[in-house]
Design goal:
The chain is of the alpha+beta class and 386 residues long. It is built from 15 helices and 13 strands. The N and C termini lie far apart (50 Å). Monomer.
């Protein structure tokens, strides 16, 4: 295992990604308070410009409240197709330039530059990569460079927008010390409130609390938090592979041409792996449907889509692919569906253009499935043949 002093990890984060894409497409938005998300008052804010943030607006806020805080804000309906396109573009630039990288979300990357300091110098290389991304995509991006993923991410957050910061090995604790505890990745509102209530406001104070006490207070997560406060993180950069997938298929007991039955099976399978996507906090950017006929000939059809993990989007896509694929009207013995181009992401981010009611509905459905089993709640059309 490499020592921390031998590791060089860069964290790249596209600044206000959705807003930046909209501004790139329409320069008149530059410098204005811009909100991206659902168009109606029932929608939620997916992203907001730095100008809008000055009014106290933040992502996931109900659009109605955001408009009340800043009546002059410009509201743009989200375009996930465009955001996915630019995400793929930036990913391609990074993939062609660096040896190992991890795509942490649609707009966030970790890059392992360990060993490259012997040849180019990691600081110079990271700076050149930033310029290359900006030149080829037109998007602003910030980066942090440190001995581990934790410190590089916090460094990036401290210099956004359009900033860059290197934290040399040995300076991790002194860098973190004056920061608020809520700036530690993974510290949510509940934990942050508990720490602040105890008088623990800075990372320095948090780092000085004995690990045993942290464990008694927060369980295993307390130990993890103590390690973070002390700048310790051995988490590896997980290489990004486009072809990671979640899939399922079904071979029927009797070959069939019953389209109602086939559609019901497609709905059932799509719901099943879409739920798995959300459980793993992932989004898919590509859907593939497979059909095997009674003569064992197998055909597939796939389509690249805006990143999502929403049933209603994936079901519509799967049905359209099946209808294009099933033209021969022969008996079918197997039907399958696969999601690829997976990246980390959650429901609130991927479905921000929907209403709060839609988001709450999906959260309630997933809560029931998680508690009682994923087959306890399915669409009626998916019951056929089960």
């Amino acid at each position: 295992m490499l020592l921390s002093k031998d590791r060089h990890i860069a964290h790249f984060d596209l600044d206000a990604f959705f807003v930046s894409v909209e501004t790139l497409r329409n320069p008149k938005f530059r410098g204005k308070p811009l909100l991206v998300g659902g168009g109606s008052d029932r929608g939620v804010v997916a992203a907001c410009s730095y100008e809008a943030r000055k009014f106290g607006i933040h992502s996931a806020m109900p659009m109605k409240i955001a408009r009340r805080l800043c009546p002059e804000a410009i509201v743009v309906r989200s375009d996930m197709e465009a955001y996915s396109k630019y995400s793929h573009l930036v990913t391609a630039v990074i993939k062609d330039t660096v040896p190992v990288f991890e795509k942490a979300s649609i707009d966030e990357f970790y890059i392992d530059l360990t060993g490259m300091d012997k040849f180019f110098g990691c600081l110079q290389f990271t700076d050149q990569l930033k310029k290359k991304i900006n030149k080829e995509s037109g998007l602003p991006i910030s980066w942090g460079l440190a001995s581990n993923k934790l410190i590089s991410k916090v460094a990036t957050n401290e210099v956004k927008p359009n900033g860059q910061l290197e934290i040399p090995f040995g300076n991790e604790k002194s860098f973190l010390a004056p920061l608020s505890v809520i700036k530690i990745p993974g510290v949510g509102k509940e934990t942050g409130y508990k720490l602040l209530k105890m008088g623990v406001e800075t990372v320095k104070v948090l780092s000085e609390i004995p690990m045993e006490m942290m464990e008694n207070l927060l369980g295993k997560s307390g130990i993890d938090l103590w390690r973070k406060a002390n700048g310790i993180d051995e988490t590896p950069v997980v290489p990004y592979h486009e072809q990671k997938s979640i899939s399922t298929e079904s071979t029927f007991q009797t070959d069939t041409i019953d389209t109602h039955f086939l559609h019901s099976q497609l709905v059932r399978m799509t719901e099943e792996i879409a739920f798995q996507l959300r459980q793993q906090s992932k989004l898919t950017g590509c859907v593939t449907v497979k059909v095997r006929y009674s003569n064992f000939e197998t055909f597939t059809k796939q389509i690249t889509i805006p990143y999502t993990n929403a049933d209603h989007v994936l079901l519509q896509t799967a049905k359209e692919l099946f209808n294009k694929l099933y033209e021969r009207r022969l008996l079918i013995r197997l039907l399958g569906i696969r999601f690829t181009h997976l990246i980390p992401g959650n429901y609130q981010i991927s479905l921000f253009e929907d209403t709060q009611e839609m988001i709450k509905l999906y959260q309630a459905i997933d809560s029931v499935k998680k508690r009682f089993g994923e087959k306890t709640l399915i669409r009626a059309v998916g019951i056929g043949g089960v």
